[in-house]
Amino acid sequence: MIELYTWGTPNGRKVSIALEELGMPYNVHPVDIMNGGQFTAEFLALNPNNKIPVIKDSDGPDGQTLTLFESGAILVYLADKTQRLLPASGIARYHTLQWLMFQMGGVGPIFGQTHHFRRYATQEKYSVERYTAETHRLYGVLNNRLAHSEFVAGDAYSIADIAIYPWISRFELHQLDWADVPYVKRWFDTVGARSAVRRGMEVPA
Known about the structure:
With 205 residues, the chain is an alpha+beta fold. Helix content is 53%, strand content 9%. Helix 1 (10-22) runs parallel beside helix 3 (71-82) and helix 4 (90-120) packs antiparallel against helix 5. It is globular.
């Protein structure tokens, strides 16, 4: 059984979507980050970096309990454990990891700043414009990729799609015209129609 410590953010939803896609049983432990739940002693014992999500797997490697933080690391672990959503070896594996890192190093940090400034600091014109422009650039990268590929890492749905989708789901904050990125829209609708994605996006209830 997987214990999932999470909240309703894009990073948290990556893991709940993956668990739903993989059909892995899990218990949800909501961590209310709006009220400091991530700073409790109990949570810091799980992740000293005070960020969700975290998983605890009582059936980890060699039968030991594994506690793991960082959403990208969790996705790779779950995929490797089940041998699904990430090729075990070869070029396809590295292409998938490449696009996962694109999310971890680009989409997540930049979209996160865009969300912050467009929600809470709209008077900071320079920051709003800077991060919104970079968000649009990243959409363009995705659109160019998806013009030639059904899914982000290639022909197969993978943890790269799972990592990116929850960030795109906040498109209302991105001052985006879908007509400018039609291939992203096609992909977004395809991924969003998956029943496991819909369930994962509702965690925690």
